[in-house]
Amino acid sequence: MKKQTTHLLILCLWLAFGIFVPPLAAQSEAQPHFLDGEAQEVAAFKDPARWVRHDLWVETEFDSDADGQPDRMHVSVTRPYQTEYQGLKLPVIYVSSPYFAGVAPDVDGLFWDVRHELGSPPASRVSPEVTPRNNRPFISDSHIHTWVPRGYIVVHSSSPGTGLSQGAPTVGGKNESLAPKAVIDWLCGRARGYTQPQGGELVEAYWSTGKVGMTGTSYNGTLPLAAATTGVEGLEAIIPIAPNTSYYHYYRSYGLVRSPGGYLGEDIDVLYDFIHSGDPAKRAGNNARIRDTEMKAGMDRVTGDYNDFWAGRDYLNQMEPMKAALLMAHGFNDWNVMPEHSYRIYKKARDMGLPVQLYYHQDGHGGPPPMRMMNRWFTRYLHGQENGVEDDPRVWIVREGDGQDNPTPYEAYPHPQSEPVELFLEGAAPAIGSLQLEKPARQGKETLIDNFSFDGASLARAELTDHRLVFVSPELKEDLHLSGLPEVTIRLASSKPAANLSVWLVSLPWNERKNATITDNIITRGWADPQNHRSLTESEPLKPGRFYTVSFALQPDDQVIPKGQQIGLLVFSSDKEFTLWPEPGTELTVDLDASSLRLPVVGGTEAYRGATE
Hints:
By secondary structure, the chain is of the alpha+beta class. It is built from 13 helices and 29 strands. It is globular, with a radius of gyration of 26 Å. 50% of the residues are buried.
């Protein structure tokens, strides 16, 4: 569509709805306004009734629904009227999602049944279909009231195979990176947009400066990173919030089949069914190619091994072309998309020399950085205002009890003064053992019996039980600051060829009050498959009675453990909230003399001694 045609169409629509459009000469020219390095709300941009809103389809370079035509992505635009009638060009904040048109119902059998023996093929599950919500002219209103008044254009798009976007959902496949790339290319004049999903007139983004930023939470936070890994020109800055940066890390843990928190039995094919809201006529073909062939062959719920399928859905492996300035946000107690997802990308981006900031809070899933942080980030990299954001602290962490808008700045994460303190295990099973700075005299082995009926919280609180081993520090005489990734080495033998291994780091005594905060009890957690003790890519059945050494990191954390508490290492097998549920009875025997915990302590051993002795 030519620009003049767009003018006439919008003018007719405004007149039809009784909106007065003043003559061009009478309109005051509005410009973005900045104060203290942040874009301010501009009165002339604030009236939603005067925003220009339209939708279109952007042509991509892929054909993921195999119909012989390049897929087109459904895109909606919201912009100040000055971009249409005063020739104003503005930067764009862009949000993409597979969720905008709705998701599948949570019917019985949607999730995999977790109650089956390890190493055996799982039973089949139900695959419901999405009834899409496509009866509205625009995709989403998210972010428009925040950013349009501050001098930005807000653009939304539905992911491939969702809503009115063509193609197939692949849940981390290449088309989910190339789709937002195509939209950014269109915003920068390098791709074609059309008024219709097939045919139609050309639409140009003549109102765009060619500077684009992306943001979003969860899956919507994954897609900015996916786009950035293409190295697309014009994507200047991204703010991913609680992003899933690796589908292997989301659905597996060191070789173990492990569900995301709150979604027991979910796997990548479940998420595919959950978001597949696109053209019903294309679903059967998409299902056959993607879900029932590629995913079925690659996801491997039997061994949980890392393979090419998972490697292709790990954005850490694709970061080399990335140029966008990165502000990442995550919660240390996010047990859905766990905090490692942001840490691993932050670390790589930092090592690549990219502009990067990391914001962690103490809550669960979601939670953006303070508005001032996001505003400064986009103001610097989209509006080009030299506000010194690159000289701001690189890490911001919300301390316990503080609001999310009041983070504490740090030079780095983990804390620069954090050092690993190795603690050794002294057993007292079935009672509570201890963590020691000095390695105890030879003491032998202890055994636990797997039983998924007992959840981790119950095992942590129990004074006596055969279903876990627990080892605790002395009571803290001073607060102790942990920062980083705790690591465990456990030498164990299993009574069966396969077993779950779950490890929690807890703060004791357990706070059972209703007003307990999210940081009171669980410090961090981790899971591993002993069959992968040598390699993530090749598991091997355990020989009953033979000992194997398993070493792995728990989820990253930064927490001040208050005086009066004890730090506890909880070792058990099946985790009722996260792992598969094999028949109870598997015995895990731990060699205490060859097992240890490395705790990341700010101040190292000296600080740990000072707090415990």
